[in-house]
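Dear support,

I submitted the protein below through the web form. The confirmation email said the job was done, but the results page showed an empty box. After a refresh the structure appeared. I'm attaching both so you can tell me whether what I see now is the final result or a partial one.
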Amino acid sequence: MKSCFKVFRHRRRNVILLLVVVAAICLIFLAFNDNLSTKSSAKAVQRRSSHVVELPRTTAIAYSHTKEIDTRIHKVSKKWTLNGSSAHLSSVRLNKQKLNRLSFVRRGSSSKQPNWNPGLYYNASSTPEVFLQWRREREVMCDGRMVGYDHEFVEARDLTVDRKFCTCALQGGELIQDVINQEELAEYYTFDVGCFQIGCAKRPSYFFNGENHLTKWMYSIAVREVSDKVDRVIDDFTIAVTRYEYANLFHTMTDWYNAFVVMQFFNRSSFDTNILIVDAHPYGALDSVWTQLFNSTVRLAGIPTRTRFRNLVWGIMGYNSLMKIFVSPTPPLIEDFRSFFLSAYNIDSRRQIDCAKLSILFIWRHNYLAHPRNPSGFVSRKIHNEEQLIQYVKRKNSNSVVTGIQIDSYGMRQQLQLVANADILVGMHGAGLTHAMFLPKRSALIELVPNYWSPMAEHFKAICVWRGLVYKQWFNNDPRNEFSDQSTNIAPQIMNTLIKNTVRELCGN
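What the results page shows now:
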C-alpha cells in the first residue's frame, strides 16, 4: 500500500513538472512571436512612412517645372485634421474605437485664397432640367446608404475603401521622365471584391451608362458591418474621380466640369468639396488645377489602407460628360462654370470688348513632353509660318494688340489671364482651343484645320455655340501647304481675311 502511494506521488510530481515545462515553452513561443510581430509592424510603419514622405518629395520636384502649383497637392496623406488654418494629427473615439478622424487639408492662411463662391450658382426657380431628371431617376439601395442617379453617378454613405482589394503597382504623381514609355494600362487600378465595403442586407446591383469604370466599382462592393474597424474616417463631402487623357486640356475640362456640376447638384461649394483621384497617372501640368478649384485633392495611394467615407460620390465619367454632347443641348451651368473657374484664380471675368482696340491672341502648338507615351514630345497640327503670319496681321491691324504664344508653357493662371483679356482667339485644332470656355462673352474663336484632319470635329464649335460666341473655321484644301513635320503653311492674306470677317461680325463694321 505504501509503495503504491509512493508511485502515485512520484507520478504526480512528474505531471506537474511536465506542465511547468509545457507552460514555459508556450511563454517562450509567445514572446518570440510577439517579437516578430513588433519587427514586422516596425517595417510596415517604416514602409508607410517612406511612402508618405516620397509623395510630397516627388511632387515638389515635379512642381518646380511650373510656376503656379499648390504645394499641398499630395501632403493631405500626412495632415489629416484642421485646427483653424493649420493642420495637425489628432485621435478621437468613435463607436468605442480609437480612430484618427481625417479631414482634408485646405491651403494655409499664408497662401492666396481663391475667390470661391460660398453659395450655389442657381436657385430653386432656375434648377437645371438635368438635375430634375437625375432626381426623378434616382434609385435607393442599401436602406438609403447608396443612391444611384440616372445611371451616371452614385452617392454613398459610410462606404469603406480597402486598398488591399483595389490595387495598382504605381502610386501616381511620378515625374514623366522617370516613367517614359510606361503602359497606360499600368496607371489604372484593378478592383477586386472588397475594394468598396458597405453595410447592406445584400450586395447592391446597379449599372452605369456606357463602358464605365463605375460598373467595375459596383462589382467590387462587399457587404460589411458599418462597425468594422477602419484606419481613418473622413467626414468631408468627397467626389471620387478616375481621369482619362489626363494631360489633355479638353478631356480634363470635362472632369472639372463634371465635379462642379455634381458639387452643385448636392448643394455644396468649393469650401467643402474634396476630390479623391482613383488612378495612378504620373504628374501632369494640369494636376495643380484640382486643388485650386476644390478644397483639397488626394490620390487613392495617399489614404490609409482602410478608410471610411461618410459621404462619397462616385463622380460622372469624363467620357459621359454633358460637355461631350456637342452643339445641342447646352450643358447646364456652363457660364456659371466659367465664373467658378476664373474666380478660383481671382481673375475678373467681366471684360467688355473695345472695337477700337481689339486683342487678338494666336496660340501656337509646339512640341512638348506631356505624357509617357509620347517620349519625343512630338505634336501635330502646327503652323509652319508663325512669324510671317503674326507680323502680317500686326501690320494690317495696327490698332489691335496682336500676340502669339505657346499657351501650355504658361501656368494656368497666366493662361486664363491671357484668354480672359482676348477678343479673338486663333489656333490650330487642338486641346488649347478649349480656352474658348474662358473668352469674354462678346468674343470669337477662329479654328484652323490641316488637310489631314477632319473638319467635322465639333468640340470647340460646340463651346462657341453654347456660349454665343462668334465661330469661324478655316480648312486647308491644298495638300501642298502641308509639311513633313505636320505643320501647315497658312497664307497671311487668308488669315487677315478671316480676322476681318470676324471683326465685322463682332463689331458690325
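Response: this is the final, complete result; the empty box was a page-load delay. The chain is about 30% helix and 20% strand.
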